[in-house]
Backbone:
């Protein structure tokens, strides 16, 4: 177990270097001069362009720029964006907001998705099963911004139940609607995955054995059936946290959440490689660590899986 | 001209939704309740300023609006778009339009309590002009004598390997402090419009604190001299402002606190406006314009206004194919601007019929003869010009909503003249401008212009005079240049305007570009606000607000 963990952690290093370089290179190759459109319909004065080029060493070749960036990064210095703001400050203010939103979404999708999945998996073809099938199909089919705009307009403007946008305090109660919107598609997938998994394992030998030896139904389902059926669901949930954080840009925009989505978008448009890489690096780490956590959870859920 | 930087659209201003309105007002009742106003607070829509709030360094609307609120210049532009009036200036005197003696009022203060003195202006302008400071608006000081000594040009442009030489001097020789409240400005050449320019944000005074703190620290906590004082700035979230009680000039603020909330998405802001969480939105989203939805949503709280900005399609005159004036005129006359205004802009932008926007002082309505829709005449001119071979591409930046009207224009040209015309989007404004700046456009392209200061000069000098800062198509007519020079040196604004009218008549013959529409703005406010006015640039006039 310890050696497995160490090996997995060591694997993070090349992945980390590879992703950072790839992203740096991608943003660098986005066409367009970062200062060409900055001053509107007239070109910016040369003095301004020169000063910025000098300050951010933009005339150096890509590899030197990347090297400088990594060197500073290893010393804990993320650098500044073109507006003169510390990137570490951007990360510190925007990440907690996105994480909060993603966790709310994850919780909502796990609770609702799992409940619906288990209930329908146990009683297939009933009214509830059909209802869940249709509603999940609906959620999967609709693009997220449609769900977002409709929810905002209906709940926020038309009925006035919630405020249309999230305030800067990011209260939990305000995050329920955006969280639901963000997690809606995954919720549908989880419900369907859990349903299939439960339905399949329901006919497995060990379940029949458990029932035959007279265990109460609650224990059969809660301990034996659920634990074995959860593996695919946990995989989905684990990788979903990263996907939710990275994919929250649309939801963040609709509900005015000050998260990483807008920062990455803006930085890509203005070609700020350092900002994009810094934000994405943290996202990459989230992905990698969540993957590791999921793999470790397998062992806890299924005793047949062991790590050496 | 400032650029709008809403994250969702990264729009090039002038064209998308330009910001100039001619002081339009709407009031649902006879006025506000003085008691409610006195310590009232409102929340308004804004965008995160791109750089620190330093007047000479801000070229986009998010930061620009805040700078306009917290600073007052030597002159200010009335909301109705008329000629500027003195604000901090007691008097601006000149005999030859070359040497100006500026006296400033003695009792005005910065928000940190220090008195606004002549040297605060002189030092601020010298800072802005000094090229190593890299101020984005540095070129605005080029009228002043000695500018070339403090602002050196890069010998091979910003792209080249050579560096700009160190400027010879740190201060412009044309600026002289006479006493605490008087200074003298000597210009390079007579410029009648100079006093008008002084209300533009670049010419704002800076307190001593700016020079002790440095631009970067100051920009995060700016100290102005306007009716509204800066309180705090939470990046990407909000900027808080409050009334400056010691303000002694014309318009004091009637309410107390203002929160500028930074929205990423204008639809989110609009929904907040409808739900009563937001008190003012300068431009409602495009989605609300279709079928005049915004008017039925907001009722009397909808404020439509016209803005002195113009949507233009420019010719790259450096390209041989576009050097025939008859061809240019034929293309211009084959465009049915009224139809575009009605069908694509739902009447929110009016068809252009003059070279300078008619809301600008000195501009004349209807002086663009090539803006008339006349297919017969266009066909005749087209035949005389010898025609156009090959494909005529009209470029626009695809990151803002220009696709519809550009395609309509291309289609009309194709139908009416039989030219193989089409519109093509360039992915981002940055790439688009890069090609334009480099003079590498291979077809016509979308442009737009919004006045920096209210005078017809701003519609001629930068756009149609040889070497003008936005004359990207490299149009050049020595007679226009000569007239513009005479106009600049005219003893009075009236005389200058007469000369500019002559220059515009020549421009009208040459058709260096195609004005298509005049800008319009659609704003909305909450039920809380009882009285509201927009400034000459369509920004909210915070001092006018009553609750």
Residues:
């Amino acid at each position: 177990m310890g050696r497995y963990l160490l090996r997995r952690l060591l694997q993070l290093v090349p992945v980390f270097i590879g992703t950072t370089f790839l992203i740096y290179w991608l943003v660098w190759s986005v066409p367009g001069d970062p200062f060409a459109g900055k001053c509107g319909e007239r070109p910016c004065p040369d003095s301004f362009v020169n000063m910025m080029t000098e300050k951010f060493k933009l005339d150096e070749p890509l590899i030197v720029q990347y090297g400088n960036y990594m060197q500073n990064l290893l010393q804990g210095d993320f650098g500044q964006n073109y507006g003169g703001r510390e990137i570490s400050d951007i990360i510190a203010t925007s990440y907690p907001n996105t994480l909060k939103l993603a966790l709310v979404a994850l919780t909502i999708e796990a609770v609702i998705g799992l409940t619906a999945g288990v209930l329908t998996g146990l009683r297939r073809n009933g009214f509830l099963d059909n209802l869940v099938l249709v509603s999940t199909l609906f959620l999967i089919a609709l693009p997220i911004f449609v769900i977002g705009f409709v929810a905002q307009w209906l709940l926020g403007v038309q009925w006035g139940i919630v405020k249309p946008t999230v305030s800067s305090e990011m209260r939990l109660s305000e995050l329920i609607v955006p969280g639901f919107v963000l997690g809606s598609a995954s919720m549908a997938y989880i419900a369907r995955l859990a349903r299939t998994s439960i339905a399949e394992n329901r006919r497995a030998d060990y379940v029949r054995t458990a029932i035959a030896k007279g265990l109460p139904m609650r224990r059969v389902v809660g301990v034996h059936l659920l634990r074995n059926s959860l593996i695919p669901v946990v995989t989905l949930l684990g990788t979903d946290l990263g996907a939710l954080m990275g994919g929250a840009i649309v939801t963040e925009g609709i509900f005015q959440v000050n998260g990483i989505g807008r920062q990455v978008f803006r930085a890509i448009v203005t070609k700020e490689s350092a900002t994009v890489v810094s934000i994405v690096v943290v996202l990459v780490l989230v992905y990698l660590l969540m993957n590791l956590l999921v793999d470790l959870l397998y062992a806890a859920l299924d005793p047949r899986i062991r790590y050496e | 001209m400032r650029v709008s930087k809403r994250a969702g659209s990264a729009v090039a201003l002038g064209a998308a939704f330009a910001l100039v309105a001619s002081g339009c007002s709407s009031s649902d009742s006879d006025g506000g309740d003085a008691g409610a106003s006195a310590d009232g607070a409102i929340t308004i829509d804004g965008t995160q300023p791109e750089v620190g709030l330093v007047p000479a360094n801000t070229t986009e609307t998010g930061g620009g609006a805040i700078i306009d609120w917290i600073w007052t210049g030597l002159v200010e532009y009335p909301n109705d778009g008329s000629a500027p009036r003195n604000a901090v200036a007691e008097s601006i005197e000149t005999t030859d339009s070359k040497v100006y003696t500026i006296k400033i009022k003695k009792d005005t203060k910065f928000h940190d309590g220090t008195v606004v003195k002549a040297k605060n202006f002189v030092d601020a302008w010298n800072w802005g002009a000094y090229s190593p400071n890299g101020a984005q608006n540095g070129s605005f000081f080029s009228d002043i004598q000695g500018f070339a000594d403090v602002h050196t040009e890069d010998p091979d442009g910003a792209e080249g390997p050579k560096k700009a030489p160190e400027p010879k001097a740190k201060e412009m020789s044309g600026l002289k402090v006479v006493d605490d409240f008087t200074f003298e400005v000597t210009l390079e050449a007579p410029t009648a419009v100079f006093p008008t320019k002084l209300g533009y944000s670049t010419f704002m005074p800076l307190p001593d604190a700016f020079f002790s703190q440095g631009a970067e620290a100051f920009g995060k906590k700016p100290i102005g001299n306007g009716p509204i004082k800066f309180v705090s700035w939470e990046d990407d979230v909000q900027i808080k402002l409050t009334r400056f009680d010691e303000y002694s000039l014309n318009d004091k603020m009637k309410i107390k606190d203002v929160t500028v909330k930074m929205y990423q998405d204008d639809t989110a802001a609009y929904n907040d406006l409808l739900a009563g969480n937001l008190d003012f939105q300068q431009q409602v989203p495009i989605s609300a314009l279709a079928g005049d939805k915004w008017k039925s949503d907001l009722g009397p709280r909808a404020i439509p206004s016209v803005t002195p900005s113009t949507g233009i399609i420019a010719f790259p005159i450096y390209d041989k194919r576009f050097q025939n004036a008859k061809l240019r005129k034929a293309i211009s006359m084959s465009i049915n601007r009224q139809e575009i205004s009605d069908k694509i802009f739902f009447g929110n932008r009016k068809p252009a019929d003059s070279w300078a926007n008619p809301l600008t002082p000195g501009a004349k309505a209807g002086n663009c003869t090539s803006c008339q829709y006349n297919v017969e005449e266009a066909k005749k001119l087209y035949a005389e010009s010898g025609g156009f071979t090959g494909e005529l591409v009209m470029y626009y930046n695809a990151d803002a909503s220009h696709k519809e009207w550009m395609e309509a224009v291309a289609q009309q040209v194709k139908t009416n003249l039989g030219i193989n015309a089409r519109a093509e989007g360039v992915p981002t404004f940055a790439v688009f401008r890069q090609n334009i700046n480099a003079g590498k456009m291979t077809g016509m392209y979308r442009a737009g212009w919004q006045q920096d200061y209210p005078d017809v000069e701003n519609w001629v000098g930068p756009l149609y005079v040889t070497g003008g800062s936005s004359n990207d198509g490299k149009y050049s007519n020595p007679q226009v240049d000569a007239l513009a020079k005479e106009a600049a040196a005219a003893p009075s604004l009236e005389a200058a305007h007469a000369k500019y009218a002559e220059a515009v008549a020549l421009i009208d013959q040459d058709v260096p570009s195609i004005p298509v529409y005049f800008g319009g703005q659609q704003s909305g406010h909450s039920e809380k606000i009882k009285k509201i006015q927009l400034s000459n640039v369509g920004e909210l006039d915070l001092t006018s607000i009553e609750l």
Remarks:
- The first helix of chain B runs from residue 34 to 38.
- The radius of gyration of chain B is 23 Å.
